[in-house]
Predict the structure.
Amino acid sequence: MSVDYLNTITENASRLGMRIQESLSEHTREMNLARSNVSYLEADDSKGRNIRKQLDSSSDREKLDSMKRLIALISKGRNVSEYFAQVVKNVASQNLEIRKLVYIYVLRYAEQEPDLALLSINTFQKDLNDSNPFIRAMALRVLSGIRVPMVGNIVVLAIKKCAADFSPYVRKVAALAIPKCYQLDDSHLPSLIETITKMLNDTSPLSIGSVAVAFEAVCPTRLDLIHQRYRRMCKLLVEVDEWGQIDLLNLLLRYARTMLPRPIVNSDGEEVDHDIELLLSSAEPLLQSRNPAVVLAVVRVFWYAGPPSVHVKVVRPLLRLLHISKEVERVTLSYILVLARINASLFSPHYVHFFMLSDDSRQAKAEKIQLLVCLVNFENHQPIFRELIEYTEDPNDQVVADCIAAIGKCAKMVPESMQTCLAALTEMINNNHDVVVSNAILVLKYLVQTQLSQISGANAVNPSQSSLSIVSSLARKIDHIRHPQARACVVWLVGQYCASDQVTSAPTGIAEWAPDVLRKTAKTFPKEDVLVKLQIITLAAKLLVLNPAEQTLGLIVRYVFSLARYDLNYDVRDRARVLSSLLAGVGSPVLTPEDGITPFEDRGGVVLRSEQVKVVLFNGKTNATDDEHAEHSNMIIGALGVIVGKTTLSDTILPDWHEEGVESTLRDSPDDTPVSHASNVLSVSSSTGSATPVLHPSRGNSPSAGLSTTNGRKWASNLDDFFKEDVGSDNEASSEYENDDSDEEYEDQAEGEDEEDEHDEQEGQSDENNDEEENSEEGNEEDRNSEGNLKNNETGYEAFG
């Protein structure tokens, strides 16, 4: 036993060694091939000097080597069109590899060398009859790639020929050649439309997607050609190649919105046309496609063609795409953002999927912030609010600004979170980061303005204490706020809500912190930004109209207007002139010229009273508005504008619904009716008495044609015994078999055959109907010629055997 065991181990070890050696040799060979192919890309330019000599050589090996070098140079961006004449000579080479590379080269430079390319047209036409479908397809690609108008007729004939090719790959190339021919010469439009019409009847999933591309490029308005093919195209969707599915889905969506009735939603439910249901049911399996572009195309179909009840089916597939890659996530987020603006309830339960990650791109972070704002509601506002506060520590200043703005929008959308948002924004003012401080002030200004927007002019001077506390805290920090827009917001808030009825050390009717803001900003007026200067002038006018008699305040206002009158910016000068004219009727002593200084000119006209000036200055500001959603209201998923953020010329236009649609009968085709099977069908009979099956024809009205039994009759176990049975039954069977030409009669009787068989098993031949009696009489007449019929039966059953 030990010897046998050692022999077995030795044999297994030798086999293992042989397999390892074969595997190593195979890997070595693959590495050598890969190394040899890479050498063409890494070769020096000096080695390409012999290319011309190699192309003229009689050795296929040298020609192949030179063609590989040329294709490698093309891939590196080199211009090798100087070898076109030598390459064209090899277009009829018997070597398949050489011919493929020659086609690739000619296809690349045919447009630059049209005259030399025309010399090889005869060879391309001959290759259209080649036995290799790849050669036929490449020949058509080269013919359609020659951008010479004079070959248009030849290309049209080649397309017609290849459109009827038995290879679906060749038909696919023919469909893709149609747009090229149309761009070359649009006079061939009728012929091309005729070819497209024939190719729309193609049942091959490989070519129908390319036919959809040709249809959209040549005759996109001829949707009448799709009528009878619509249902067949829907059924072929699952079998079409991935990129063909995208083009076919876009075509079917456009057809559905143009030719089918719009789904109706009423109190009784949804009314959806059965052809729209067919499109949705055929496209639904594609939501699980591995190609993200296919999934997005299906989402577009469901969203723009389906009723609202099917919109929920696109949520999970879109969330799945977020984890494929960063590029796919970027596009998917744009799609989800458009859908969330229309119906946020679909994605609100899945808000966790849109939390930012540290490695997200800037665009992805911005879109996730917008999505969180769209999805916020009372149930999820607290975790979203905490996330947004956490994002304010992001190193990207734009992301920080977007997060702070999002906090303000959340406070507007969920009023219950207003106080929490105000507290968080107020705390951000103490931050050392200027971007955080400036954006927090902008949002606070927006929130305060929104909160007090419904207060009338009479009550505008008495805002709520919470708003005053926010404004006062901002006013005291004016020296630490450096951002121009933020400083302008603070100055505006101080001027808008500076009125107060409380008795303080400040001038009567003015909050104690307002004059100090004017004093500080007046000192730095020449150095301020234009936005800040405009708000300082407005603040000075508001304080003066609230207390015209205060001497110190009047002097500061006069100083500010004097600086503004001679400012270099014309907007500042114009603002000063307008407000000086408006304040002409206030009656302040500082408006009287002193020491030759005339800050306000006497322009005449209507002079407003003090109360009228208050209305103009304090109630003239419009309420805060948010136009962000209005900018994206016309965005359509599937358009490039969704990704770039603005409309582009290449954006697809989605047609409006046809309210009633065209007649449904226009979409009826012979493919929709079930096709009857061949008439010669063999059935298997069995009985309890014998387990051996017997083959016999399943036609005719006779009980012997189906599963039946006869009293006292034993089933035959073979054909010899079968032919020795009762002659009458044989004649009856022969009479049925001789009537094989009457196929229509058998098809009409096929429906009642099973019922007759069950009836015959219970009652026998005594209860047959009138038609069966007539057939039996015909069988009796044929009994007289039983010998001839028996021979016919023998011949027929030998054929069955």
